[in-house]
Amino acid sequence: MLVTLTSAVAIAATLAACSGGGGSSTTTGTSPKLTNCTNTMVNKDAPQVSVWAWYPNMALVVDNFNKAHTDVQVCWTNAGQGGDEYTKVQTAISAGKGLPDVVMLEADHLSSYEIQNALVDISKYGADKVKGNFSAGAWKDVSQGSAVYAIPVDGGPMALIYRTDVFTKYGITTPPTTWAEYEADAQKVKSAGGPVFGDLGANVPAVLMALQIQKGATPFGYDLTDPKKLTVKLDDQASKDVLDYWADLVKKGLVGTQDQFTTDYISGVVSGNYATYTSAAWAPGYLTGAGVGKGASSGVWAVAPLPQWDPSNPVSVNWGGSAFAVTSQATDKALAAEVALGLYADPASLDDGWKTQTIFPLNQDVLKSDAFINNKSDFFSGQTANKDIYIPAANAYAGMVYAPITVYYYAQLQAETAKINAGQISGSGAATELQADIVKYAKEQGFTVAP
Amino acid sequence: MANASAVAAERSRPSPAGRRSAQRTNHGSSLRRRSRIGWLFIGPFAIVYVLFLVAPLAYAFYLSLFSKGLATGTTFTGWGNYAKAFADPSFLRGVWFVVRFALVLIPVQMAISLAVALVLDAITTRFARFARLMVFLPYAIPAVIGALMWGFLYSPTFGPLQQFFDLFGQHAPFLLSPTNVFGGLMNVVIWQWAGYYMIIIYAALQGIDTSLYEAAKLDGANPWQVAFRIKVPLVSSALVLIMVFALIGTLQFFTEPQILRLVSNGTITPDFTPNLYAYNQAFAYANFNYASAISFALGIVVFIAVYIFLFLTRKRGSFLS
Predict the structure, then answer these.
(1) What DSSP letter does each residue of A6-67 carry, written as one string?
(2) What is the pLDDT of residues B192-213, one digit of tens each?
(3) Averaged over A392-414, what is the pLDDT?
C-alpha cells in the first residue's frame, strides 16, 4: 500500500511540474504582469507590454519610456539578433502562442509575418499620427496600401566605408564613384601588393539583394491585397550583371570571401585586410562595438557615397533598419500599439542611438535637426557623414518590396553566393538557379507566380 | 512484461495435488497484487515514455500526412510529403553525405577505440588508469562545447594550425572548406566519441577469463596473436553493439554541423545532413509538415541501414540468418 501511495504521489508531482508554465498570471483584458523582464519596472502598478528587441542601447531606451509613462510599462527581453529572433518569432507564430506584444522586425521580414496574420494593422490604433515623422520611402517599407504593420525606428542607407590609410598608400586620391572605378581601384591596390578591396560575404544576402535593386532589378512584386500572387524576377539582366560583377571580383582575387559578422572578419577589418566595407549607416556603431576603431585601427576610416552604375541616375538602397510591430497575440492591442508608437521615439533615446552611430534614426525630427545634420562622426575622424552621405541617401530611398518567403530566399541566395565564392558557378548561372528554385518553392507554398 | 511472464511460468509449474486448491487461491491474489505492483513500478517510466516519445512521434506522423503552404491552408496529402522527400535532391544529398561519413567514420573510430582498449588492457601500471581517464575525457565534454571549441581551433585567424603554418610563411588549409569539411567534421567526432567506445570495449575485455591468455601463452602465442585471435573475437558482440549505436548516431548527424555552420564560411549549407535539413525546414521556414516527413524518411533510412548491418554481422543460428 505504501508503495502504491508513494508512486501515485510521485506521478502526480511530475505531472504538476510539467504543466507549470513561465511568466504570466491570469489575464483580465489588461496586459498581464510579466515576470521575465530584463529591465525593472518604474511604475509597478501599470499594465505591462512585452517587447522583443536587440538594439545595443535598448536598456536605456526602455528605461526612458518607462519613466515617461504611467499608463503602461515595457517589459523587454532580448530574444536574439536578426535570424535568431526570426526563428523564435516564426516558431511562436506556428505554435499560436509565445509571441511578445511588440516585436522588433526588419522591413524585409514584415510581409512573411503579415501573410500569416501575425501582425496587427496599427492604422486603426493611431499609426497615421506619426506618418508625417517619416520619409515616404521609410513609410512605404512598413505599409501595405493604407494598412500599417510597423512603426519605423531606424534605417540603413548604404554607403562605402573605406580606409584612408590604404587609399593614400596605394595612390587612390578620390574614392570610386562608379562600380567600374571600384574595380579599377581594386586592381590598382592588388597589383601593388595591397589588401583585398572589399568582401563578398555569403551570409549577408540582404546586401546583394540591395545592390541588385540598385542596378534596377525588382526581385519581387507582392501586394497584401492579393496575397496569393507573387512576382519573382531574379534572373533579369540587372540581377545577372550584379552577380557577374561580384563573381568577377572574386575570381580575380580583388575581394575577400569571408562571412561577415564573424570574429575572423572583424579581426581582418582591424588588421586592415579590407580596404572598403560596403555597408549601412549603422555599421560604425556595430564596428565600434566589435572593437574596430580603437588602437591600431583608429582614425583611418572615412565614408563615401555608394558607387553607382550610372552616375547620372543615382539610386539609393537600404540594408537593415528596423521597426516595431504589434503582434496578433498581444493581449491588449491598443496598449501595445501605444508602446510601438512611443518606444524609441523620444529625443533622449534617439540621441543616444545616433550619437554612437548605432542606429540611423528615420524620425524626421532628428533627421532635420542641426545637431544631427552637422554631427562630426567620431568613427570617421570628424567627417560630417550624416550631412554629406547618409541623409541624402536616406532621403533618396524609395523603399523596396520583399517577398513573404524572405527567409527561404535569403538562405538560397546565401548558398548561391557561397558557390560563387568557391568558384563553382558564374554569376549568371547563380541567378538562373536561384530563379528556378524560388519559383518552385513559391508554387509549392501555394502562390501563383508571375515572371 | 518480464514480471508477468515469470509469474505465468510459476503458475504453469505443476504443484502437488493435495495442496492444489489452497495454493491456487493464494497464488491468484498474490499474482494479481504482484502484477499490479509491477505495473506501478513501470508506471512513471511508461508515462514519460508515452508523453515524450510515443505521443510526439504520433503527432509528427500525423503532421507529415498533411501539407501547408503560406498561401494555402492545410490539406491532406497522404504519402505526398514522403514522395517529395525521397525525390528531394537536398534530402538525398544529405543522406548520401551521412552514409559516406558513416562508412568512413565507423571503421576508423572502431579501429582507434579497439587499439587503445587493447593497449590499455595490456598495460598494468598506474599510467593505464590515468590514460583511460584522459582518453575518456573528451566524451565528458558536452558536444556543443566541444564543437564550439573546435570551431575556434579551426579558425583561419586564431587557430593553432594557421600559427603553425605561419612559421613556414605558408597559408594553412581551411579545415571546413568544401574539400576538407569531411575530414574536419570527422576529426571532431572521433575526438569526442573514441573514448566512449574505448571504455565499452575495455569493459568487455575485462569480462574475458584470463586463463584463456595463459592457455594461449602455453600454446606459444605472442601478444599480437593473443590480441587478435583471442581478445577481439571475444569482444565482437560488444563491437557489433557499439557499431550499431555509432551507425544510428552518425546517420542522424546534427550537433557538429549545426554549431560549426557559422564558422564554415558557407560550406555547411542548411541541407548538409538530413537532420539539419529537417531542422531548418521546421524552424527556419516553418514547413513543419515537410520537416516531419523528412524526419520519418530519415528514420526509414536508418532502419534499413541498421537492418543491413545486423544482417551482415549475423552469427550462425541467430534470428536473421
Answers:
(1) HHHHHHHHHHHHHH--SS----SSSPPPPS--SSPPSSTTS-EEEEE---TTHHHHHHHHHH
(2) 999 999 999 999 999 999 899 8
(3) 93
- Chain A residues whose CB is inside 8 A of the B265 CB are 202, 257-259, 418, 421
* CB-CB neighbours of B35 under 10 Å: 14
Answer yes or no: is pLDDT of A376 > 60: yes
Instruction: Tally Cβ neighbours within 10 Å of residue A169.
Output: 15
Angle B80-87/B288-312 helices, nearest 10 degrees? Answer: 70
**What pLDDT, on the 0 to 100 scale, is given for residue A17?**
40
Cβ-based contacts of A439 with chain B (< 8 Å) = none
* Spans of all domains in chain A: 28-155+320-373, 156-318+403-450
Mutate to test the interface with B, among A444, A448, A449 (most CBs of B within 10 A): A444
Task: Assess whether the region A28-155+320-373 and the region A156-318+403-450 belong to the same CATH fold.
Answer: yes
CB contact under 8 Å between B266 and A445, yes or no, is no
Across B245-259, average pLDDT: 95
Interchain pair B266, A203: CB under 8 A:
yes
Q: What ipTM does the predicted assembly reach?
A: 0.85
> What's the mean pLDDT in A392-408?
92
CATH no., domain A28-155+320-373: 3.40.190.10
Which of A45-49, A411-415, B1-5 bottoms out in mean pLDDT, i.e. has the lowest?
B1-5
Among the four given CATH numbers 3.40.50.2300, 3.40.190.10, 1.10.3210.10, 3.90.1210.10, the one describing domain A156-318+403-450:
3.40.190.10
User: pTM of the prediction?
Assistant: 0.87
